[in-house]
Model the fold of this input.
Amino acid sequence: MTQVENRRAAAAEPVDGALRQAQRPEAAALRQAQRPEAAQRPGAVDFGALPVVRTKHWIRWILGAVVIFVVAQLVWTLFTNAGYGWPTVARYFFSDAILRGLGMTLTLTVVAGALGFVVGSLLALMRLSKSPLLNSFAWSFIWFFRSVPLLVQILVWFNLGYLYPTIGLGVPFTTDYFVETQTVTLVSAFAAAVLGLSLNQAAYSAEIIRGGILSVDAGQLEAAAALGIPQHRRITRIILPQAARSIIPNAFNEIIGLLKGTSIISVIALAELFYVSQVIYNRNQQVIPLLLVAVLWYMILTTVLSIAQFYVERYYSRGSARVLPPTPIQRARAWAAVQWNRLDDEPKKEVAA
Done:
């Protein structure tokens, strides 16, 4: 063999090796497909045919059984224990006195809640102010009203006449009044309730709103200032809409707490829902049924507020979530569609089998 032929053979060897290397997977796949499945690997296990064994959560099952037993026992007692007095509950549930007390409860909640959040917003802005005087005043207000129990505040406002028999307008730091009135006449039971509830609510609302404002990135405010946007517009159009996502859950908790907290007003004999229930059961001695009437109305109102909270949170989540969370109706429709599709798939699987 000449030198030229040797060079040609040496140059062809890498090419032949590359071709054989490329043909190996195809040849192996072809041989694998031609061999029977049983002959491929004696004793091989078909993992697809093995049954799926689910993990057994024994503790979860035991706790679930205990919960079902307790709930079933409670439901059974609701229908078998005559002490609940369901006929009495039905008779008084829509009575005129109960409905008037319910109206007073809603009035106190709306008025005290609105005043509380308005004053709380001002206090929150004062706490964030660079003025030492405003900051100190807001901090002192919040500290004082969070320190004194709500029941004590209401009693103090209701008995303010013992401290100041008259209230009027006149020359400062003197007793010369141009207009003067009796404190008992001016601060009625309703006024004392509104003052106590709203000022107490303002102290807590201020910290909730301040925390929501602080949760917004400081760069948002700096960018708005760099664009020359006025300060009031920065707060109302940029800061507060973003802070609302943090404020709303806690704010609704406060509103629900305020709704139930109106029951404390019964100590000053204002005819709200709980006080009316007390008056009625003191007359007919049907204590549990009348308390159940109040409990059911509180539960209904709290449920309505919880539903409103969901939709308000969903509205303000548009700026942070690409897809809004589904509503309960949308979840029910999706679940029904999944179940319906499963029913349609079962006959197809049987035919295929």
Remarks:
- Residues 203 and 260 are 18 Å apart (CA to CA).
- Confidence is low (pLDDT under 50) at residues 349-353.
- Residues 3-34 form the longest helix (32 residues).
